Amino acid sequence: MSFRIDQITLRHIRMPLVHFFETSFGRTYERAMILVEVSGGGISGWGEATCGENPFYNEEWTDSAWLILRDYVAPRVLHHEFGAAGEVGARTAHIRGHNMARGGLEAAAWDLEARLLGKPLYQHIGGGARREIPCGVSIGIQDTVAQLLQKIETEIKAGYQRIKMKIKPGWDIDVIKEVRKEFPSIKLMADANSAYTLKDIDHLRRLDEFYLMMIEQPLAHDEIIDHVPLQAALQTPICLDECIRSSHQAGQAIRMKACGIINIKLGRVGGFAEAVKVHDVCQANNIPVWCGGMLEAGIGRAHNIAMATLPDFVLPGDVSASKRYWSRDIITPPVEVTGRGTIVVRDEPGFGYPIDMDFLKQITVREETLR
Fold it and tell me: pTM higher than 0.85, yes or no?
């Protein structure tokens, strides 16, 4: 079906985390996010720009995403006749980079089209391979090893199927050794967020003794080639994250044997259309994928649930319960995880959760409607 976007509303919101989240490039206490509401045919669709508050994960940050959306993306999509939501990303593809800003609106367009069709979003993107998605958790760098062990124990008792721990130089081998000593049989992976170089190859090789599921993005955020000799030196599979922004780059990494696993983040690749292409390339080459997280609020979390129903998402992702991050989420009910460590997929039209508009108004610090 064809549709037009007649109005776009941007909302800049602030949400304090229930506990700080630390990676190799810093500690976060509060998330500043941009929500994108697109309206057409009397119905609204919603998306979330998933960039961080600072340009540390990639070049984007909250304020840059606002400007890109307002001044460059919105003028190119308002009142344009789209044959399908899959065409929206191409309309702004000539904007260099800024996938998370562009992807926030692209995802909203998919949500809008799904609602216009009366279909759940997961079906509309071609998902539905599973009705419950397997869930893992991402645990940031802690103040002490004892604190980390306590958090891991809490998440295992909650039923989560996989633990991801952040690492960096000085918080890696010895810490993982303690984790493995305490939890010898859990599914465990390490996420380096680009904290190492090829000079660390002998150091990283020591990770093989811990039987990790994978080590995620050990080298630079824009580096594919140097992961080739590193993967050849490791028994542990490398999972690429930051450096995979398109299906083309996914195909390059696979052909070069730079990795054994790929993490797909909806915003990082610019939305659902490209995410599905990355998934298809990986599936065709027997490379398993999983859904990464960016400390999303409820809308982005619900989009991740939809994406994780695609067939090649065979590994537990970072999509976890709302309460792990927020004392109150912007959707009702909040995302919940079963005792089996899964999230049950909802069948309501669009991304499947009503928005708590009263709470949304309370946490909105800036709003602008574009017509």
Answer: yes
